[in-house]
Amino acid sequence: MKLVVDQLQKRFGTQEVLRGASFTFEQGKIYGLIGRNGAGKTTFFNCLNEDLTADGGSFHLEDDAGAARPVTADDMGYVLSTPVVPEFLTAREFLQFFLEINRGKIPYPKAPDVYLDYMCIDPADRGKLLKDFSHGMKNKMQMLVNIMADPAVLLLDEPLTSFDVVVADEMKALLRRIKTRHIILLSTHIMDLALDLCDDIVILHHGVLQEVRREDLADEAYKDRIIAALKEEPDVV
Ligand SMILES: Nc1ncnc2c1ncn2[C@@H]1O[C@H](COP(=O)(O)OP(=O)(O)OP(=O)(O)O)[C@@H](O)[C@H]1O
Q1: Residues 9-20: what's their mean pLDDT?
Q2: Which of 113, 175, 192, 211 is most buried (CB neighbours < 10 A)?
Q3: Does residue 152 contact residue 124 with C-beta atoms inside 8 Å?
Q4: Pocket residue to mutate for ligand 1, from 33, 42, 78, 193, most atoms within 8 A of Cβ
Q5: In 10 A of CB 98, how many CB atoms?
Q6: Ordered structural domains, the chain, with CATH
Q7: pTM (2 decimals)?
Q8: Nearest C-alpha to atom 6 of ligand 1 is from which residue?
Q9: Ligand 1: which residues within 6 Å by Cβ?
């Protein structure tokens, strides 16, 4: 499976944020999306998730035989940098509710505690209201329901920044485990995280997407060149 993005455009008033962003993202890989503050990473994700309507361009899924089909809501999982969870439910109730509203869609549904174990959520926290969860714990719950839904594409907007070092490590291991079944796009400002976790790095700069060659990542000086490129004009990497 591939996610093919073709000439995506988005402007807010006179500000052109996406100016024909094109890229083909493949299943089995984690893509690190890097760009400066305000480069348009969240806008790009919002367009793919159809929270925003793009002004031009298109995107679709393509199976291994090359057959194209439109992306549906069920194909997309989106973990926002600011987690949105129903605060009036406990962690267990939230999962129970999520399982009920997605009955028939979740491939092998299990009891909420099985998922909570999988996500290493402390048993003492499982009966707590989500409003009393920390930012990182809410993020973990948001990540969990998105993984449970088993979408073709997982959009992760700055997913690991709110996690402590132990949880961040767990989440990295989890993403590595599940990546074969998904196309994973992860936006981050943390270059070391991108280099450590991601198979490919894609830079969003001046409204277009540019790939960083995998073999170049072994080069220590490459990090500095990426940073330099983000300060400069496009197409200098
Ligand atoms: N709804 C909106 N209305 C007007 N301008 C917007 C809107 N959403 C985003 N923008 C502008 O579009 C640009 C890109 O914003 P976006 O949030 O996509 O960047 P980003 O790369 O995710 O930034 P950061 O790394 O700081 O989170 C910014 O200049 C922002 O102010």
Answers
A1: 97
A2: 175
A3: no
A4: 42
A5: 20
A6: 2-85+154-231 (3.40.50.300)
A7: 0.91
A8: 12
A9: 12, 17, 35, 37-43
Q: How far apart are CA 208 and CA 85, in angstroms?
A: 32
Mean pLDDT value of segment 57-77: 95
How confident is the model at residue 114, as a pLDDT? 95
Amino acid (one-letter) located at 12: F
Atom of ligand 1 nearest to the CA of 46: 18
Q: How many CB atoms lie within 10 A of CB 22?
A: 14
Tokens of 223: 């990090």
Which atom number of ligand 1 is nearest to the Cα of residue 157? 22
Given a cut of 70, whether residue 165 has pLDDT beyond it is: yes
Write the DSSP string, 17-76: EEEEEEEEEETT-EEEEE--TTSSHHHHHHHHTTSS--SEEEEEEE-TT--EE---GGGE
| CA 228–ligand 1 middle distance (angstroms) | 22
Model confidence pLDDT, tens digit, residues 88-133: 999 999 999 999 999 988 888 999 999 999 899 999 999 999 999 9
Give yes or no for residue 61 having a pLDDT over 60: yes
